[in-house]
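User: quick one - fold this with pyridoxal-5'-phosphate bound?
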Amino acid sequence: MLIWNNNTDNMAVGPKAIIHLDRLRHNYNIVKTTAGGRRMMAVVKANGYGHGAVESTKALAQEGCDFFAVFTFEEAVELRDAGIEEDIFVFSRSRHETFAEAVDRHITLNISHANDVDALAGFHAETGESPKVHLKVDTGMTRLGITMEEVESVLKQIKDSEGIRCEGIYSHYATADEGDLGYANEQLKNFNNVLEIADALGIQFSIKHFSNSGSVLNLPESGFDAVRVGMLLYGAFPSDEVPAELDIKPVMEFRGPIVHVRRVSAGTQVSYGGVWTAEKETTIGVIQTGFADGFPRPWYAGGCVSYQGNRYPIAGRVCMDQLMVDFGDASPNEGEDVLFFGENETDSIRVEEIASAIGSTPYVLLTAIHGRTERKYFKPS
Ligand SMILES: Cc1ncc(COP(=O)(O)O)c(C=O)c1O
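Assistant: Sure. Structure tokens for the protein plus pyridoxal-5'-phosphate:
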């Protein structure tokens, strides 16, 4: 694992995402306490929301997390190949050809359709084995999951099929991070109805789970046996409609180097389209990071970077590989980094601030970090 230790010899020329694993562990403990100490299923899909799935999972496992969720089967295999031994759950629609490997590698799959139950029963009849599964119920998201109308028949099908190891049942909120919780409460009511039907049929699930980050904050009564949390672990609030009182810290520090500095006179036009012109003589710095690296392009209008404790406006449109900053009369140093979002000793810009300014979300901005951006894992010495 690459450990970044503030040694300038180790600095890459281009953009970097410094991942503060100590903050990830701190956030885990805060969220676990907030969720009443419940079991945590840490969501590390999409490369750990852009933070690196393997490194994030290892850090969380060291902190005691024993359940991880990914989206694709291949993401689960990647974690197993990296030596992760804790439980791993796959959210995506099960592919029946993965059953054998799921059994071998102890990967828990999702049942979201009556056909999945048939396929599992068929697999068990052939092999005498069955992967562990959780049943997904669609209580209102209208994505994967059996519908409310199908619940009773699919539950009966599970009960009557031999060898199905249905450990859990779950659902997913569509609006738990919104100010108006009316729809989320309807979904919760639906889920409770499903649990009553299962109870009446004599089916026991050892793990019932519903909560994501929004509902950990907004609907603590839906914690059930485990909470599936992603965004809060990475140190951002899922929306600006949740109470933002938890002391979570941004795990990713996204920054890029100043590669060129020059003085320009009033009236100088900067970047594509001529949408930005210097109003007076000023210092323009060129930063080697662009939208191809994950920098949020719309953030140029009204956007800024932070350098040595001060914020400076972005000058003109963000390019594919570079962006320009108006440093005014400051004297920035070539080779040093500016901060785009995250937090370090001198600078701080919350990703939520950018998301709300450009009509996006922290989910989009964090998972967009890619291209030539180099991830470096910071562990305090
Ligand atoms: C099924 C499911 N559960 C839980 C989560 C975690 O959500 P959050 O990052 O808001 O905690 C996600 C993320 O999209 C998800 O798809």
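One thing worth noting: The chain has two domains: 35-229, 252-378.
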